Amino acid sequence: MTGALWELFFQGVWITVQLMVYSAALAAAVAFGIGMARTSRFWIVRFLSGTYMEIFRGTSALVLMFWLFFALPLLGWQLAGVWAGTLALGLSYGAYGSEVVRGALQAVAPAQREAAIALSFSPWQRMRKVILPQAVPEMLPPFNNLLIELLKCTALASLLSIGELTFQAKLARLSTGQSAQVYGIILVLYFVIAFAVTRIMRLLERRAKASVGRAPEPSAGRLFRKPSAAGREALTTGGGRP
Amino acid sequence: MNTWSWGYVGDILPDLLKGLWITVQATLYGSLVSFALGLVWALALRSPSRRLTWPVSIVVEFIRNTPLLVQLFFLFFVLPGWGLTFPPLATGVIGLGLHYSTFTAEVYRAGIDGVPAGQWEAATALSLPRRRTWSAVILPQAFRRVVPVLGNYVIAMFKDTPMLAAITVGDMLFQANSISAATFDYMEPITVVGVLFIVISYPTSLLLRALERRLVR
C-alpha cells in the first residue's frame, strides 16, 4: 500500500461522508414531512403519504438509483451521478424514517396534546412547542440505526461510477491486484465511519433527553449498537414491532 | 423524449422473469443460510465464556456495520485467490446469508429474552431437564415472536438482491441492464423491475402483518 493509494482512499471517504450527509438531510426532511402527514386529520393526506411510504419502502434502493440515473434522462431530466445517488437514498430512507417519526409522534402522551389544546395553542404551535420536543429524543436511537444503514447503502453509488470509497477501492484493486488488502482496508474504514456516526448520535440523544429531563437508555455494553435493532425493523416493509 | 411502449415490455418480460427466478432463489437460499448462521451467533453470544462472546460479538458487529456490496466484492474477488471458487450465485447467497445472519442473531436473542422469566422459573420448579426446558417451554414461545420479524428480514433481503448484479449474478437488475445496454432504452426494463419489486414485497408484507397479528398476542 503506497501513499498514493491511501490518498485515493481518503478522497473516497470524503465523498462517502458527503453523500451520507446530503442524503441524510434529504431523508430527514422527507421523514418529518411524510411522518407528520401520516398523523393528519384529513384522510386524503394520510392516504397519499401512506402510498409514498409503501412505494418507496417496497422497492429496492439500488433499482431506484438506476432508474433515476438511466431512465429519468429519457424523460428529459439528466441528473449528475451524485444527485441521482443522493436523491435515491434520501427518498427511500426518508420513507423508512417517516415510520419512525409517525411512531414517535403517536407515542407522545395524549394528555400533552389535550393540555396544549386547552391552552389554545394553534396546531402548529402545538406540534412545535409540545409534541416535537418530546418526540424527537425517542426518534434518535432508531435514526442512528437508519443512518448506519444509509452509510452502508452509499456503497451502491459506486455502481454509478461516483468516486466514493467503494469505487476508489475498485480502482485500487485494478491497479494493484491486491483484492484482499484493498477490500479489507475499506471494510475497516466503513466500520470506523459507522463507529463515529454512532458516537455522535449517542451524544445528540443524551443532550435531547437531558433537555426534556430524561436519562438516556443505558448502553448495552456491546461494541456500539443497542441490542434492540429497533430502527432496523422499520427498514423492512412489514415494519414489524420488535 | 421517448414514449412508453407496451410491445417492448412484452418482449423483455420473459428475460426479466428469468431474472426474477434467480432473485427468488438467491433470497430463499440466502434466508436459509442467515436463519441457520444467525442461530449459531445467537447461541454463541449466550455462552457464559467471555473468550467466546468477545470475538463473536466483534465479528457480528463488523459484518453488520459494513456494506453488503463491499462484502460481496470481497467474497467475489478474494475467495478465488484462497483457492475457493464458487459460481457467482453461490457467492451471492453466502454474502447475503452472512450479512443478514448478524440481524437474525439479534432477532433470536430478542425472541428468547422476550420469554417471561416466570417460564424459566416454572421449568426449574418442575425440575425439567435443560433439553426439555428449551424444546418444550422456551423455544415454542420464542418462535411466535421470531417468525414475523424473520419474515421482514426476508423481504429486506429480497430488496437487497439487486446488489448481486454487481458480481455478475443474472438477477432481475442484471437482466434489465443487459437488455438496456443492447437496446439503449432504459425506461421500460428498469421501471418494470422496480414495479415487480413493489408488486411482490408489498403483498408479502401485508401477509406478514396478518401473521404477526395471529401469532403475537
Describe the model.
The complex is a heterodimer of chains A (242) and B (217). Chain A contains nine helices and no strands. With 242 residues, chain A is mainly alpha-helical. By secondary structure, chain B is mostly helical. Chain B contains eight helices and no strands. In chain B, helix 2 packs across helix 4 and helix 6 runs antiparallel to helix 8.
Mean pLDDT of chain B: 90
Q: Using the coordinates shown, work out and report the CATH topology of chain A.
A: MetI-like fold
Estimate the strand proportion of chain B. Answer: under 5%
Largest sheet of chain B: none
Radius of gyration of chain A: 20 Å
Q: Write down the oligomeric state.
A: heterodimer
Shape, principal axes of CA atoms of chain A:
flat
In N-to-C order, the SSE pattern of chain A is HHHHHHHHH
Number of domains of chain A: 1
| Topology pattern of chain B, helix = H, strand = E | HHHHHHHH
CATH architecture of chain B: Orthogonal Bundle
CATH topology of chain B: MetI-like fold
- Which CATH architecture of chain A is right? Orthogonal Bundle
| Count of helical regions of chain A | 9
Q: Domain count of chain B, please report it.
A: 1
Rg for CA atoms of chain B: 21 Å
CATH superfamily of chain B: MetI-like
Q: Topology, pairings included?
A:
The complex is a heterodimer of chains A (242) and B (217).
Chain A: H1 3-37, H2 43-58, H3 61-71, H4 81-107, H5 110-118, H6 123-153, H7 165-176, H8 179-211, H9 230-235
Helix pairs in contact in A: 1-4, 1-7, 2-4, 3-4, 4-6, 5-6, 6-8, 7-8
Chain B: H1 6-46, H2 50-64, H3 68-78, H4 88-113, H5 117-125, H6 130-160, H7 172-183, H8 187-215
Helix pairs in contact in B: 1-2, 1-4, 1-6, 1-7, 1-8, 2-4, 3-4, 4-6, 6-8, 7-8
Give a quick rundown of the structure.
The complex is a heterodimer of chains A (242) and B (217). With 242 residues, chain A is mostly helical. Helices cover 74% and strands 0% of the residues of chain A.
